[in-house]
Amino acid sequence: MPQDSAPSLLHDSLPVTPDESSVVPPSGESRTAAPRQGFGAAFDWVDAARDERRRAGLVRTLRPRPADSPLLDLASNDYLGLARHPEVTHGAAEAAHRWGAGATGSRLVTGSTELHARLEEELAAFCGFEAALVLSSGYAANLAAVTALTDRATLIVSDSGNHASLIDGCRLSRARTAVVPHADPEAVRTALTGHDGRALAVTDSVFSVDGDAAPLPALAEVCRARGAALLVDDAHGLGVLGDGGRGAPAAAGLAGDGDVVATVTLSKSLGSQGGAVLGPARVIEHLVNTARSFIFDTGLAPAAAGGALAALRLLRGEPQRAARVGQVAGELHDRLTAAGLAAVRPDAAVVSVRAPSPEQAVRWASDCREAGLVVGCFRPPSVPDGISRLRLTARADLTDEQIDMAVGTVVRTAPGF
Ligand SMILES: Cc1ncc(COP(=O)(O)O)c(C=O)c1O
């Protein structure tokens, strides 16, 4: 049955995103121009939608940050602290000077430079895959991988905790998607049982909300028993998990296997922007020819490719960075739980701390900010299980003093403390 006619099989929760933020126009004035009047009521419905969001307390807004914020950031995904590393910014600037500010076209026309080719080569080699394809974002990489590796007759088996970009890939593919309970290889086995034909299991390697890792070896075993391929979104694993940060597929001994494809983002550990699909060369060649989010998208900007390449080389030369993220995450977890907070043991960089209610979670995050610490905040309906949390991300470059400050602030501002 095509996916359109089986909505009950789809992930139907809202995409998971942090939602504690607010509009602070730089000048203190409204940044939106007054709308021109007199062209009917075509968009009047957006006011009703806005009012509904307000009533539900679910307004999302933007908070532009200054270049030199005095706040300690435990909300970003800059796990290795490389986004502002001089070698990385130099790599980005030099690439922009040499190749231009933009890629000038889609990858199949003029948007492939030697820099893209070098990044693909080094990324694939580092993560242990035969080949790689760089796209303009991790989101585009997930759309590319899921849609190009499925057709309407394919069965996709998708973890209920997967990132929105994998979910959107499932939707776009129009394949039948069976959403299975979180991190449950037996549920994957059951979903695959009886399906005759192509099948693809898709999972995050590390889940965004709780920072827990998928059971990749068990998932691969189940897929192999049923002849299904496995697609792993390693957005939160690259740079953190595996030997020297080679990622979760490498850590699970699956990198380079003929039935495994991984996607990564260049925007978290590598401190840049962009995404990539890693896999067997024949699969990558298939994506070059068929993946619409690759073909009909301008190539990754040279600055982003140059920054990511510089970050990758730093990581390769300084493998201790990856280990340090894990240590910091473990320390945050241990100290927060020792203080009586309910934190999930982190498998990578994300440390998730439970809050008693959505309102208290928002207040808690706001109190942290007042005290100089930026943390993420998740609350329903962004989190399908209805549990609100603060989300802290460990960074390899945090000092002991900064860790003390972060722990002290989260504990001191906790509801009921
Ligand atoms: C698990 C996961 N996959 C994919 C993405 C998308 O990556 P990008 O931000 O490069 O589009 C993200 C980013 O938040 C993510 O957390």
TrEMBL record:
Its EC number is 2.3.1.47. The keyword Transferase applies. PANTHER family: 8-AMINO-7-OXONONANOATE SYNTHASE, CLASS II AMINOTRANSFERASE/8-AMINO-7-OXONONANOATE SYNTHASE. Its cofactor is pyridoxal 5'-phosphate. Keywords: Biotin biosynthesis, Pyridoxal phosphate, Transferase. Pathway: Cofactor biosynthesis; biotin biosynthesis. This is 8-amino-7-oxononanoate synthase. It catalyses: 6-carboxyhexanoyl-[ACP] + L-alanine + H(+) = (8S)-8-amino-7-oxononanoate + holo-[ACP] + CO2. Residues 1-36 are annotated as: Disordered. It comes from the Bacteria. Homodimer. PROSITE patterns: AA_TRANSFER_CLASS_2. Residues 71-408 form the Aminotransferase class I/classII large domain. It comes from Streptomyces piniterrae. Belongs to the class-II pyridoxal-phosphate-dependent aminotransferase family. BioF subfamily. Transmembrane segments: none annotated. SUPFAM superfamilies: PLP-dependent transferases. One of its GO terms (biological process) is biotin biosynthetic process.
